[in-house]
Amino acid sequence: MESAPKRQRTSPVALLSVSCKSGLDELVRGLHRLHVDLIASGGTGSAIRKLNIPVKDVAEITKAPEMLGGRVKTLHPAVHGGVLARESSVDTTEMLERGYDFIDFVFCNLYPFQDLLKKKGDTVAPAEAIEEIDIGGVALLRAAAKNHARVVVVCDPADYPRVLQEMEARQGKSVSLELRNELALKAFTHTAQYDSAISGYFRKIYGKDSSWLSLRYGMNSHQSPASVFCTSSPLPFKVLNGAPGYINLLDALNSWTLVKDLQRGLGAPAAASFKHVSPAGAAVALVEMTEEEKRVCFVEDMDLSPIATAYARARGADRMSSFGDFIALSEPCDEVCAKIIEREVSDGIIAPSYHPKALETLSKKKGGKYCILEMNPDFIPEETETRQVFGITLQQPRNGVHLDTSILDNVVSKNKDLPDEAKRDLLVATITLKSTQSNSVCFAHRGQVIGLGAGQQSRVHCTRIAASKAECWRLRHHPRVLGMQWKKGVRRATKSNAIDLYVSGEIENATETERSEWAALFDSIPTLLTGAERSEFLLRDPSLALGSDAFFPFADNIHRAHRTGVKYVAAPGGSQQDAQVLATADLYDMVMCHTTTRLFHH
Length: 602
What we know:
The protein contains 24 helices and 22 strands. The protein is of the alpha/beta class and 602 residues long. The relative contact order is 0.07.
């Protein structure tokens, strides 16, 4: 049987092409001591010769001198063939025929592109940046990393001692497969980060306002600079007016997800009012507002379109929390909706488009600085989402679960009577929870959120908060609230605050100063509600819907929900206390559905 051809050299060969010379002296001395033949590019070769250590220039093996001022050095078959050749008969024969040597080690690091950006920041001109983009080095690292079954690739000077130590332990032979694997991964990561820095730099220049947008600052004013960008497509939104901030965009994109989900799940125009990455309110325009509801939402003087109805309800869910909101609309913003927004305190809006007069109206808000975003309704985000926490990267599939009334099919309570209106409200609550910071619990009624408890570590505290908000919403319909006689000139936000003090009962415990300031808002001071009056009004129509993003761990949630008038409940099962929770729901003749999907959101 014919034996495989043998390599030309018996000594291992190392190619060195390093921009950073740190640790180079110790490395080449160690390689020379281990009888490794050295090949180096221009500047690296000069540094090695100063140590009186023999080294070949790359040009000696390529038979071609460097050209274009050093732009082309190692891009040659003699180099890349030596790196990419495998220990096979076919590859060895071809290498012998061409007279090329195998290369066993590649020590390479790249032109300091990132260091240039750190040093000069946005003052770096494209012509200067281009000259710091490494071509041959990146190709070498990728080639060596690809062939790491045979080749050792080292891109970090910090790894030189480890490589030398392992070579010495193995009598000058290659390092272990485990170390080759580790170093190959490091090289691939290094080139990916390098390319990311380059594309990021040019994205700021060539993709400005299309795929990259500068922000005023990040989460806080000291977190600057900040930006938003897409790597695979243009940004899916256009800034029509104002300048969005970091938190504005968190609210805008999360709220857009919510209204798209609501419209898809319920087939009606949807709106959301967001604050600090959770909804203050959300609604669909499936039912017309009664005159009483219009008064509660401060829109009794308007004839409402469907999208305006949705936003009036969303804003009216919790007017205190919606102060300074970011608005999302699933359908184009019309003039009527813009008129509602015009007289409210709001930070911005995202919608698929704007009627001309609506855009004109909104563009005048906040002294012309009101943030108006036009979202591409056809944009589909990538299936995988990535985020960083404390420098650590987390990755998961995007939560693209579609929620419709089929999630309510598993009715586990004794009472099975679940009318369409209840399904509508349970679906509104559940979809809203998908875009709410966990833990979260949501009360809904007549197609709108009326109370949301978000971001609490204890679920019963979510329920208490949501129930309290729902009770305030219901008590805002009380005749004494609707009949409040305000002094002339009291502003809408001030009215909302005063009503909240009244319906929450906080005014009863107010200081003398606070109570006198409150009383000064009225021509006729309203009589406070007694506990009995509050309870009687709240339980007048016990038909509220309650959703939870995860299972109820204890029955205390159900007890609290009952006191607010909950009749319908939807939550995932899976708690050790499911039986007790269900028994409590049965005690109050509630209808309870076990949904199939947990909806945590952070």
